[in-house]
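Quick one from the shared queue. A colleague (R.T.) flagged C4-type zinc ribbon domain-containing protein as missing a structural entry in our internal table.

Convert sequence to structure tokens.
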Amino acid sequence: MKAEPAAQARLLDLQELDTELHRLDHRARHLPEVAEANRLKERVDQIDGELVSAQTGVSDVERQQRKAESDVDQVRTRSDRDTKRLESGQITNAKELQNLQSEIASLGRRQAELEEVVLEVMERAEELNAEVARLTAERERTVAEYTETVARRDTAAAGIQWDRARVVENRARVAEEVPDDLLALYDKLRAQYDGVAAAPLRYGRCGGCKLALSTVELNEIKATPADEIVRCDDCRRILVRTEESGLGSQDGQ
């Protein structure tokens, strides 16, 4: 394949622009704000789950508290009624009187037990409500941090996108100055060799694989017409001759 030295030199400009596009794409994929936003979003989701669990616990405990308080009221009402009967003096039968006193005592013990249950349930409700309040506050802080991180992420991404659009425009302009067949070869090699298709030959070394060419290889390149496309024998990338190629009189052609 043949191409004017000037067109070959433009491949280096094209390669520089493609390398810049690769760098920008890598930056866009690895913005620290992206990972941070994802982490914060996961934490918000986790808090939401914990909140649902805590709020469900509060509802359950409140229901238990209402049931325990209702039981206490029932026992207290019955105990008050029996006490009034006892104090009324209407009961004269000794056995009946003894049974009533025994029932009042039993109701007193039952009331004490139920009141203890109420206290325990109230303490549990207080703990759960405190947990709900803590999680709610943490969620508000995390959501605020997430919103701020997303804003920074979007700003950074927009900046990268603006830079990318500029580079894409410059690339299109440079690509127009490269012959179609050479451009097709360049794009094919770029897909094959990690995005690097063209490299400068400087001081006898390939800029693609960074290996020094042998004297025989340099002499072969020196003997090759300036409009002939040269490939590196090691990495097979296009070698673009420069003023610092180390080819002597052919440098700069």
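The first helix runs from residue 5 to 29.
Helices lie at 5-29, 32-88, 94-175, 180-192, 215-223.
Added to the table.
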